[in-house]
Design goal:
The complex is a heterodimer of chains A (634) and B (464). By secondary structure, chain A is an all-alpha fold. Chain A is built from 24 helices and 2 strands. In chain A, strands 1-2 form a two-stranded antiparallel sheet. In chain B, strands 1-2 form a two-stranded antiparallel sheet. The chains are: A mainly alpha (634), B mainly alpha (464). Chains A and B meet through strand 1, helix 6, helix 7 and helix 23 of A and helix 6, helix 12, helix 14, helix 16 and helix 17 of B.
Chain lengths: 634, 464
């Protein structure tokens, strides 16, 4: 019974958020926010250890709000609160959000509503809390600029309405507002309404997670919103929620079938490739990171598309891993931006010397996202490849096989491109020729900010070395079946060997450093060098970019007309014009015509009232005549 | 009983007092009268909740009686109208200060609210009709308040269109009397109504609540001073039609499925067409007027579903809409007052200089769109859910598409007024009464959404 109160512990931050607004002192607000989030984090851990029974609050008549708990929501809660706490700690010293009084209210409410999403056991409460995170997304982004916030609101709002429609259809078909869990019956997709419901809910989930083609607001928002807002929303909580819903849809709500597999695999593969290609050519650190945030969603979607328990587990695991390294990357970029006041890769460079901890963490995150062992990104991608292979082995028919193979290639190729992109990122920001003048004031950021980033980097390493334990205690209980790997990989042995290799390398490097090195002018067959000895990182992939077919592809991909937002608002505007002109203005015209008709009639009657006696007599006679004729006729 | 008569006649008599008072006291007196009337209505609600039957009846002849009944629906509508009226009266003190002819304004406004309370408590159809027409006259005078040619034309249009509806409504009343020999609502309870009569009533209702095809007067009525638009054409007057629908078809008569399905059709077409029109318009107040028309469609839809729960949900919708839409209109009023323009193409960039108005606008807009955790979310979701439950899949889908259009037009308005380059410079006054009122309305929309059990419990205990 007592455990039920833990539910409230996780929703507590909303109330306290409003209370915080009352305090004038920034310091006090910050501390209380951290305290609240740590209480809520503790609550979520306790809830995971000692799961609570569901709780029902009557809303009206037959409609109730149900709070429920399963192992997946428990996992989500822990990470919601963890990210909330770390970002809160980080942003307490971040200039852009300092002295923005509602900031902590937004942050606390966001964490609380995200917790509520995961605890919802019925559709009404789910839609409510899900939609509230949209309002908060808008609030966070509008700390930066209005137009990008509006764009995000429009795209994600459209998806939320689509989710509402899908959920209502689901309720209509099944006759219950309760969300099915993995023990209850699922809906068989054998009727059009079921399919509509599936597609509409899928749109809701994918848009929240930032999958293509619903991603276009993310890069724009990244440039304008404060970094902590990006780290908490598109990089972590939005991903957690979107993929959480995707997991519920594809595992709990519907019976998985081939068509779902094809949809998810295709969407996932295309997202991976499409977004990473765009990331490769970015010159702004924030835009680059946000395109990767989109690309990585592709992996998770792909995991669910395999339809194997290994793939699904990989999808969830990759989601957790992604949120860790991606929020870490955004915070790293934030630390750099805080010190250098720019995110332009062309203007940064050589910061490793001034910000060694941030650099080390940044490398950690970059290797994680690129899927390099022994980091967590590798662990989940490795699982994912196995899941896809397993799907391929079990698949029947040439089309299915082709889709699986395509997905597998996309995933691996995407990983390679991600690595290429992050070599550019790390080089441009931390390595290369330093500009001593600009880096003069650079140094490590405040301890709170460093702590957040370090914790995330530590998690990257930890989950990469012991993925098995994490899977066993956090993901397996929800899936209910043991995850069996088909590949052979010993993460701990590999980590040990890699560690030893790096150690050897370091020893070698120290030895080399003690010798005096000679620098000399360089010589390219007598030609004038275009660049100096320090080749700018943003030029790394220019050759590929300018290959004729790829150049065409890039210009096509960057076309604004293909932006879903423009398509959506354009078609809505067209619909609106048609309704306005054809219906509203037409009715208005008819109303005016009716008015003129009355005026015309009264004009006629006025003409008859001329005041001339003869005329009235004539009318009377005419009347008499009519009466006479009628009487005669009888 | 005495309390009931006080609630009705206090503002009506008060309007005469406002009329004869010297000019400088009129504004404060009207706010005071409406404030006290609101308190009386709260008192009446409390008495009603204790389970006491409150009615007053004095029969003149077989077809007319001065009879009033206070039931859940009536006290709800009266309290809400008086609350919004009071807040708008507060707002008008500052807004109308600069207008020469302000005196008449207060008279008509208080009289309007008095007749509105009379209307909701009326227990006789003909008496209801009398108050109905007094509100029309008030509305006519208030829309044409500035006395320009355009204003008078708009006022005439509003009066004539609603009068057209009202005359059909009157014919329906006559037909009811001829068929059943009574006009007392208590006597007529449970009587099944012929389709023809029901449709005649509906014509009156849609003319007053500006549903298609009798909607075109409402956007034009935006020429009136903003407090008028907020009070009459967003929060109170347009709800009269909705109220009449609830009173007649949910609580009194039994009507045929054909009629209810037609009402659903009207509401769905209205939701979509008006929301589409709002996305095209450039005039702030016209956008909001279309928005009102569209939102009233949702309320009509909820009522036309004609189940116990959809009726309660409609009341919550009325509450949510009255608060938020009044807030939006008053925001538009502040902007118009400060910049002298209503055209979104001429405005822009006001976020920097008018942050509080912008915040209030967003709070109210989110409620109207139906984004959680704002109050407007709950009834909108329930309308969609209940439409689906009743098997009206297309109506439910249209309601969701309407919400999406709402999102687009309200955010387009926000972008046009508050974002981008500032074309006309304006600054909100620190400690302004007007800004305080809109903030109250916005914050109420937020908190009632978070604590949605409060309005739901209220409606539950009012409607048995």
């Amino acid at each position: 019974m007592m455990a039920r109160y833990l539910f409230f512990l996780t929703i507590l931050p909303i109330c306290l958020g409003f209370l915080l607004m009352a305090f004038k002192s920034e310091e006090l607000r910050k501390r209380l926010a951290l305290l609240t989030l740590s209480i809520s984090l503790a609550g979520s851990v306790l809830l995971f250890i000692k799961p609570a029974q569901g709780l029902s609050l009557n809303l009206i008549a037959d409609y109730s709000l149900l709070l429920g708990f399963n192992k997946l929501s428990g996992l989500m809660l822990i990470f919601n609160n963890l990210f909330g706490f770390l970002v809160c700690l980080y942003s307490a010293d971040y200039t852009e959000v300092k002295n923005r009084r509602p900031y902590f209210l937004y942050l606390l409410s966001l964490v609380a509503f995200s917790n509520l999403v995961c605890l919802s056991a019925d559709f009404i409460l789910f839609i409510f809390s899900w939609g509230a995170t949209l309002a908060l997304l808008y609030a966070f982004l509008s700390l930066g600029s209005g137009p990008s916030a509006k764009k995000a609101l429009s795209i994600v709002g459209m998806a939320d309405f689509s989710l509402i429609l899908g959920a209502c259809l689901y309720i209509f078909v099944t006759g219950s507002t309760i969300m099915p869990d993995n023990q209850s019956a699922k809906l068989l997709l054998n009727q059009p309404l079921g399919w509509f419901s599936f597609i509409l809910m899928l749109i809701g989930a994918l848009a929240k997670a930032g999958c293509a083609p619903f991603h276009t607001w993310i890069p724009q928002a990244a440039e304008e919103a404060p970094i902590p807002a990006m780290a908490i929303l598109p990089a972590s909580l939005d991903k957690l929620l979107g993929i959480y819903l995707l997991a519920r849809i594809s595992v709990d709500f519907f019976v998985f079938n081939k068509v779902i597999a094809v949809i998810l695999l295709t969407l996932g593969s295309l997202t991976i490739i499409f977004a990473v290609m765009l990331a490769l050519v970015q010159h702004d650190a924030r835009r680059l990171l946000s395109f990767h945030a989109v690309s990585q969603v592709g992996y998770m979607v792909l995991g669910f598309g395999t339809g194997t328990s290994l793939g699904i587990a990989a999808g969830i695991f990759h989601m957790i891993n992604h949120t860790i390294y991606k929020s870490g990357l955004f915070l790293t970029a934030g630390s750099v931006g805080e010190k250098r006041k720019t995110f332009d890769l062309d203007r940064l460079g050589g910061l490793a010397r001034y910000m060694p901890i941030t650099f080390a963490c940044g490398v950690c995150f970059a290797l994680s996202i690129s899927g390099v062992p022994p980091f967590n990104g590798f662990a989940s991608k490795w699982m994912l490849y196995q899941g896809a292979l397993l799907g391929l082995f079990n698949s029947e028919g040439a089309v299915m096989r082709f889709v699986y193979i395509f997905a597998l290639i996309a995933a691996m190729f995407g990983s390679a491109l991600t690595l290429a992109s992050f070599i550019k990122f790390i080089h441009a920001v931390f390595l290369g020729q330093e500009s001593a003048k600009d880096n003069k004031n650079a140094g490590e950021v405040s301890s709170g900010m460093r702590f957040s980033v370090l914790v995330l980097a530590g998690l990257c390493l930890l989950l990469g070395i012991i993925p098995g334990l994490f899977l066993k205690y956090f993901i397996q209980p929800w899936l209910g079946i043991e995850i069996i790997f088909i590949g052979a990989w010993n993460s701990r042995l590999a980590a040990g060997l890699l560690g030893a290799g790096i150690l050897l390398g370091l020893i070698f490097w120290r030895g080399l450093k003690s010798k005096k090195l000679r620098t000399d002018n360089f010589f390219i067959g007598g030609e004038e060098p275009v660049f100096g000895p320090d080749f700018p990182a943003t030029q790394f992939y220019r050759t590929i970019e300018e290959l004729p077919p790829i150049k065409k592809l890039y210009s096509l991909m960057q076309l604004e007309a293909l932006d879903l937002y423009n398509l959506l608002s354009g078609s809505l505007r067209l619909l609106a014009y048609l309704l306005f002109i054809l219906v509203d203005r037409f009715i208005d015209l008819l109303t005016s015509l009716a008015g003129y008709l009355v005026l015309g009639l009264s004009w006629l009657l006025r003409k008859l009232h001329s005041g001339v006696l003869d005329l009235y007599l004539a009318w009377s006679l005419l009347g008499l005549l009519v009466i006479f004729v009628i009487l005669m006729a009888r | 009983m005495k309390l009931l008569l006080t609630v009705i006649f206090f503002p009506i008599l008060g309007s005469i007092l406002v009329y004869i008072l010297p000019k400088r006291y009129k504004a404060a007196a009207s706010a005071l009268i409406l404030g006290i009337a609101f308190l009386f209505s709260l008192l009446l609600t409390a008495v009603f909740l204790k389970g006491k039957e409150i009615l007053f009846s004095s029969h003149l002849n077989s077809w007319l009686s001065i009879s009033f009944t206070a039931d859940g629906l009536a006290v709800f509508m009266a309290s809400l109208s008086l609350l919004v009226g009071f807040l708008i009266a507060l707002y008008s003190i500052e807004y109308m200060r600069d207008y020469e002819e302000g005196g008449a304004f207060y008279f008509w406004m208080v009289l309007f609210l008095g007749s509105m309370t009379g209307l909701v408590f009326s227990a006789n159809l003909l008496l209801l009709f009398c108050f109905w027409e007094i509100t029309s006259v008030c509305s006519w005078r208030l829309i044409g308040f500035y006395r320009g040619e355009k204003d008078l034309k708009a006022a005439d249009k509003a009066f004539l269109v609603t009068f057209f509806g009202a005359s059909l409504f009157l014919i329906a009343i006559v037909l009811v009397y001829l068929n059943y020999g009574a006009l007392e609502l208590s006597v007529l309870k449970g009587v099944s109504l012929a389709n023809l009569v029901a449709f005649l009533f509906l014509a009156g209702i849609i003319s007053k609540s500006a549903q298609l095809p009798l909607q075109s007067w409402l956007p034009d009525a935006g020429v009136a001073p903003t407090p008028v638009t907020a009070l009459l054409h967003a929060a109170v007057l347009v709800k009269i039609g909705i109220y009449a629908f609830a009173r007649l078809f949910n609580l009194t008569f039994v009507s045929s499925p054909l009629f209810l399905n037609s009402a659903i059709l009207v509401s769905v077409i209205t939701i979509i067409v008006a929301a589409g029109s709002a996305l095209v318009e450039k005039n702030m107040k016209r956008i909001l007027a279309y928005s009102t028309i569209s939102q009233l469609g949702y309320i009509l839809l909820a009522l036309a579903l004609n189940t116990g729960i959809s009726f309660k949900i409609a009341l919550v919708y009325i509450l949510a809409h009255s608060l938020a839409k009044a807030g939006l209109f008053l925001c538009a009023g502040i902007i118009e007052h400060k910049t002298g323009s209503k055209n979104i193409n001429e405005l822009g960039g006001l976020l920097k200089t008018m942050p509080y108005t912008a915040t209030a606008y967003l709070l109210c807009a989110f409620s109207i769109i139906g984004i959680p955790p704002f109050l407007g979310f709950w009834p909108k979701l329930m309308v969609v859910l209940l439409s689906f439950k009743a098997g009206y899949l297309l109506a439910g889908t249209a309601a969701v598409i309407g919400a999406l259009l709402t999102l687009f037009y309200l955010m387009r308005l926000f972008e046009g007024v508050f974002l981008g380059e500032a074309k006309i410079q304006a600054r909100e006054d620190a400690g302004s009464f007007m800004v305080a009122v809109v903030l109250i309305l916005g914050v109420l929309s937020l908190f009632l959404g978070l604590l949605v059990k409060l309005p739901l419990n209220l409606v539950n205990s009012l409607i048995k």
